[in-house]
Amino acid sequence: MSQLPPNSPYAGRWVARLRGRIIAQGGSPEQARRAAKKSRHKETPEIIYMSIPLNFPPLIADIVDSLPADQPLYLIGGAVRDLLLGRASHDLDFGLPGDALAVARQIANRIGAAYYPLDSERGAARLVIIHDDGTRETLDFAAFRGETLEDDLRGRDFTLNAIALDIRTQELYDPLGGVADLRAKLLRACSPTSLSDDPIRILRAIRQAANFGFHIHPETREAMKSAASKLPETSVERRRDEFFKILEGQRAATALRALEMLGVFSEILPEIAVLKGVSQSAPHVDDVWQHTLNTMRHLENILAALSPEYDSSKAAELYNGLLVIKLGRYREEFAAHFAKSLTTDRSLYGLLFFAALYHDIAKPLTRKDGEDGRIRFWGHEAEGAEMAAERARNLHLSNDEIDRLKRIIRAHLRVHDMGRRMLEKGKQAEGGARRGSPSRRTIYRFFRDTREAGVDVILLSLADLRATYEHTLPEELWKAELDVCRILLENYFEQPEKTVKPSALLNGHEVMEAFDLRPSPRVGALLEAIREGQAMGKIESKEDALVFGEKWLGAEI
């Protein structure tokens, strides 16, 4: 084995060498040997591997030490791709000939990992390691799909995922030219039938192309178009999981545009396909579909700017700079918000992008042309919340996710209303504090209705505003909406007990006893009125609550 610089055309390849001269190359020893035979069929060349330096995870050495001396084991797929790209990977896939279950169990016992059999028939098992800092590593072991390693690789989806690494010798096996495709930033199917064999790979191709900034090979793109009609034949769960990976990945708006161009939405999310070409009046600068894509693009940029890793010195653009100045102090709080989850399978980040995709979904249904020439979409937020919930149920999202989704979409105009009110009132004010700021009652009711989704609504609203106006966005309107968002977040993150979730002064039993009430909706309504009074600063003690309750019940009669 010889080592070459990573940029050498032979790096990571097997070569045939005669008298010190390379005469052929290939992705495997057999390919190099066959290539050499074509020109030097009477001679027997030396077949060697031209290595490249790779930064192996420390865990690989522990796995090698756990293997029987005669047991081959190969790292395959995404982990090898990430290794070649210099990216960290916590999910490692291994392939091997023979009994994968037995080998996996032996390794689990040696390295202290939890063992889970996944598929006894095919021979697949998963090991999970949870480190002291809470991070997890997942190791999947499976028997070759086919007689040989090359058979296994040829049956995979894309060439960049069809590369294997012998973990003992650190030699690459690349019969389909995946390493060259990685260098060329090209996504190419492993075979002409890769997409029709498993149409879910269409979604995976779009996600990987977007995540890595790759372009899709023309033949692969045509195969994707042809196979799109087969997507409904796949399981809902697989379509959902792969689609949410797109939403959780890089450049989601770019990925969704590609799905639309390939005709995928009409097969899996038909209501999305209807958004294209639905015109809107000013201040909107785009139709509903383009506006939706732009909203997602701005949302991604906003979340990046408000992440703990963001370099604030890069905030050169005016609107982005103002965003960082007004809301940058809540970076850690935003990170903690998205670190929570409603299900182990999907993130709140992905759910927010799903809400962004569906926030105007009811506009085609509610579109009305007014006598004044303006186009209006009365009630599209409420109607859209129900449409999104219906799609979410079809995708088998959890009840908690559906509830969060509905709250986000139903409330996505409220921050705009507050921002415009602040802007209008602010123009009338003369010095001093800015007039038109959200009142304590408004703040309380906003979070009463949105709950934890209030943070998501705020972020979506900012992205929605940017996408509505694009380069025509008035600076004063942007500042006003940012001020509203800052006030809402200040109350939510810094003083929730004051205006967002005041501590209960009375419980239901105490209310019924104090006012001689039977269990009924009136009890809940009175408790809510008391909480709102607390948020407004009008009720501060139990005695205040009792006096208020007596007046409230008297007024109700």
Please give a quick description of this structure.
By secondary structure, the chain is of the alpha+beta class.
Question: Please, could you describe this protein's structure?
Answer:
- This protein is an alpha+beta fold.
- The protein folds into five domains: 2-51, no CATH class; 58-184, Beta Polymerase, domain 2 (2-Layer Sandwich), CATH 3.30.460.10; 199-268, Hydrophobic Seed Protein (Orthogonal Bundle), CATH 1.10.110.30; 272-499, no CATH class; 508-556, no CATH class.
- The protein has 28 helices and 15 strands.
- The chain has a seven-stranded mixed beta sheet. A four-stranded mixed beta sheet has the order 1-4-2-3. The protein has a two-stranded parallel ribbon with strand order 12-13.
- A hairpin with a 5-residue loop joins strand 14 (368-369) and strand 15 (375-376).
- The longest helix has 20 residues, at 475-494.
Beta-strand portion reads: 5-15%
The oligomerization state is: single chain
The global form is elongated
Distance between the termini: 91 Å
**Largest beta sheet, briefly?**
7 strands, mixed
- Uncertain residue segments: none
Chain-averaged pLDDT: 91
Query: Strands of the largest sheet, in order across it?
Result: 7-8-9-6-5-10-11
CA-based gyration radius: 29 Å
Number of domains: 5
Helical residue percent band: 40-55%
Structural class: alpha+beta
Task: Compute the number of strand runs.
Answer: 15
Helix count equals 28
